[in-house]
Amino acid sequence: MKTCLIVDDSKVIRKVARHILETLEFSVEEAGDGKEALERCEHAMPDVVLLDWNMPVMSGMEFLKLLRQRGHSDQPKVVFCTTENDMAHIRAALEAGADEYVMKPFDRETLHIKLQLVGVA
Amino acid sequence: MEISDSSSRILAGLLEARTGQQLTMNRRWRLETALSSLMRERRIASIDELITILVMGKEPSLAGRVVEALLNNETYFFRDRAPFDLIARAALPQLQQRHASSKRIKIWSAGCSTGQEVYSLAMLFAEEPLKWAGWTIDILGTDVSDAVVGRARSGTYSQFEVQRGLGIAQMIKWFEETPDGWRAVEGLRKTVRFQVHNLLEAPPHPGDFDIVLCRNVLLYLNAETREKAFERLASAMAPGGWLMLGAGETVIGQTRKLTADKDARGLYVLTSNAEQADRRVA
């Protein structure tokens, strides 16, 4: 079973994403901000991270840069999942090492295909 | 809101008369949702009132709008993925050899809805510019609904639509942000064309298409109408051309004009071509 870490400060989004991911047979962990997510990754690296952009304590972008700086250039796969939906944000995320990008709102089919595209579903 | 059987039957009859499609039981429960936007726009309070207007012929344009609202336009980019891999792997290399002198390939997406399948096909070619340099790739999308053909032609998709099926790198390569949504870049739009067409009528260019796609459309037709549709699709195919259907759809037991391609599971060829090939092997 593949593992997914959901990083989002919204409990509702985490709940919805967890539900979708569990129907896709993922084992799911959650973190409420980038700092907590980094700690979880150090403890046990997930196969994929579903990452919000704007969060308190540490943003998704800060988390991603630190993760990739620490030598995790290819693993885990990182899928941004955010309301920052313009071309500039998308390009910045890809340059920082994101593998895919989901614009909220999304549905199960969209997320499933994105996870297939990064090779974890 | 309760929808009476007689109202359902009238709407089903209208849809079938205009498009050949059946309003199956699993679509009937969505009638109210499908028609709610149109009813709000026309200030129609109930389905029964809508039926009354339709039956009395008070607003001739309304029937067309109702039919468009009832059609299932569900689609997304590279739907099911595997069919597009199959076309790229099995069909295009053969077509490249077959048409090496004319450098022309014609593809028809029948029942293309809002056009995502057509633009996905266009991306298959556009992703390999060197391979297809100097070729004329003619990709035609048709649908019975004027409204969805208009949307397909514009090449503009909402944020929700544009990311369904597309990887982010592909999305930002082939689509640009506009005030109305995400629009396919001109380089992609100029390789495709769209027109209104009913599948039960003669095909746009008989005997001319190297690949015909008709996915997730025929399942809404009754057996007799489906057989007619298969005849139309077969008559559109060039000798040696292929038909691709939706996942779970087949020609087996539906038509004698088409048969499975032994070398490419998921593609269908004209039975006459398959028999000729078998005789050559024998």
For the secondary structure, the number of strands of chain A is: 5
H and E order of chain B: HHHHHHEHEHEHHEEHEEHEEEH
Q: Give the overall shape of chain B, derived from the CA principal axes.
A: globular
Tally of individual helices of chain A? 5
As for the number of domains of chain B, it is: 2
- Tell me the β content of chain A: 15-25%
Give Rg of chain A in angstroms: 13 Å
Query: What's the CATH superfamily of the largest domain in chain B, by name?
Result: Vaccinia Virus protein VP39
Write down the overall geometry of chain A: globular
CATH superfamily heading of chain A: Response regulator
H/E series of chain A: EHEHEHEHEH
Terminus-to-terminus distance of chain A = 10 Å
The major pleated sheet of chain A works out as: 5 strands, parallel
Radius of gyration of chain B: 20 Å
Quaternary structure of the protein: heterodimer
Strand order of the largest sheet of chain A: 2-1-3-4-5
Quick one: how many beta strands of chain B?
Answer: 10
Helix-residue proportion of chain A: 40-55%
Helix- and strand-based class of chain B?
A: alpha/beta
Query: Looking across the biggest beta sheet of chain B, what order are the strands in?
Result: 6-2-1-7-8-10-9
Which structural traits does this protein have?
heterodimer; A: 121 residues; alpha/beta; Rossmann fold; 5-stranded parallel β-sheet; 5 helices; B: 282 residues; 2 domains; 7-stranded mixed β-sheet; 3-stranded antiparallel β-sheet; 10 strands; 45% helix
Structure summarized in a few sentences:
The complex is a heterodimer of chains A (121) and B (282). With 121 residues, chain A is an alpha/beta fold.
